[in-house]
TrEMBL record:
Residues 5-180 form the Hydantoinase/oxoprolinase N-terminal domain. It holds the Pfam family Hydantoinase_A. Signal peptide: none annotated. It comes from the Bacteria. This is Hydantoinase/oxoprolinase family protein. Residues 201-490 form the Hydantoinase A/oxoprolinase domain.
Amino acid sequence: MTTVIGVDVGGTFTDLVLHDAATGEIRVAKQPTTPSAPERGVLAAVDAAVPADLLARCRHFVHGTTVGLNALLERRGATVGLITTAGFRDVLEIRRGDRDDPYDLFWTPPPPLVPRRLRLEVTERVAADGSVACDLEPEDVRRAAEVFAAEGVDAVAIVLVNSYANPAHEARAAELLRQAGFAGPVSLSHEVSGEYREYERTCTTVVDAFVRHRMGPYLHNLDRELRARGFAGELLVTRSGGGALALAEAAARPFETILSGPVAGAAATARLAASLGPSLGIGTAVAADVGGTSFDTALIEDGRLPLLYQGEVVGLPLQSPWVDVRSVGAGGGSVAYADAGGLLRVGPRSAGADPGPACYQRGGTEPTVTDAALHLGMIPRGHISGGIELSEDAAARALAPLAGPTGIDGVDAVAVGVVRIAAAHMAQAVRGVTVERGVDPRGTAVVAFGGAGPVFGCLLADELDVDTVVVPPNAGNFSAVGLVQADIVRSAARTMVRPLDDEALPLVDQVTRTLFERLAQPGAVREVDLDLRHRGQEHTLTISVRLGEDNLTAVSARFSEAYHRAFGHTLPDPLEIVTVRATARVVLDADRPMVPAPPSGSGGRGTTRLWSFRRGAWTEAPVVRREDLEGVTEGPLLVVEPTATTYVDAGFVVDAHESGCLVITRKDRA
């Protein structure tokens, strides 16, 4: 076992968990995020919880970051130039011809990241089988370099048709670009994706070039500051598809880190379900991560992450391994307001970390979900993590103006409405990852975490008619726990459209050998997946394959089972392979246990005035430290710990499991 630090940067708070393998010591910290310079919040969390001698013993610093995502959301990245095959200049604007919202008559697609004047064509053509139909014209590349120099282009994306089948022209174009004097980053589509579909591959490569401008300097600055504090280990960055990349790899392939933050919590949930599922009574779990800015959820079946191989951010498709995490703007900082018709609304806009909810007393005046929860006693009065002192008066002052325009009678009713609406938004997101996949949410267990997740556990259970809620140790920092448990993962893919027949698996074996040579990950566990479909269909299902063990019948049967589970029927049509996927996984510590919660370090809290949603009334309820909870305890009550508060409503009971988890179960269905 090794000493590991995990740091997750959220929209409102930056969370840290340290697990010292030598002593078993656990350290946690929660500091306000610094949106203008995220590394300052990361370093503040390190300074608050990790002394220099312990930092020097740390072998891995695993970081979940939103820098790449924020660059896309804010459209603040590099000035990108695009070199593409003649005739494909406008693929970023033509898109797929579909609409993100089919019912919005005025919907317009987001503008492309590369304006038309910086999208330049070169003469060349590679066929789908990799043969060269037309040689690359070097002079076209040189002319493009002249335009980029005149326009002040920072990074260049090179995307040539069918380069996944033969990358020679892309490699030559990059060489010519360098010879012409371009010194900035160059993203080559065959290195970024290796898959067909020109629009998606072009978009992915452009995103990679766009976010490099911010990701590279950010990661290197963070690494430098950590080493100045005595860190001598390896900085890792989590991937959108789970696992982590080394710093150099993350800086070279930043598109793989776009959703690294939300994925960590889902990964921690999957690990919890895989290791403790039987003893906790968890079969299928729903990750419910309620942060300050958003609610993130994922469906965990059989302890496995729901992995996709194409995602989308702000209308931009990305060909990258992608854990299916759905996010909605319903977090503790989500702003409540009255719309033009006098209806009470919550989110998606957030007060964020600066200024934050009104009750934080940091300049915020708008009412938020946190203000409503504090007013209802769902959060204990006083200080919370990050050195923030909560003000009930400030929360009430922010909520009061909503009573008039909405016609709601009084601040109490406004607060109840805000919390209920936020819970309804969260429940709808959960239905999106369960019902859409044919899974009944009533048969799942909700794993509630994030700073506000345990506050909403019982409300979500009632919204979804779920009987079990699990609150893991270090719930407020559970995404950072997922980082502490991460493996180093690299992946590559290659499109190879051909029938699935007796000759296919030996060819797949050859392709995977090439892909693993490219990944060059010594000591890694090798995983192979195939994208398969029925001949004549457009889209695929991804099936794991054990090369050397599986035969054609076994692979076909596995596909048929997955197809039936997804669509409710099977087809007799022959199968074909579309894409071969290789993943190299270095397991940092297969035996790393769950990270237990540190003691609260404070005395008993007595009782508090608490709103019970099930009773629809105020009640006097006990406040119990997590480590003092013994046996089965009936709600209503609050369970407090350093980074989160668990709200247990009437009609539920809570029990401290030997693993350190809190298990909340429904006592009745009143």
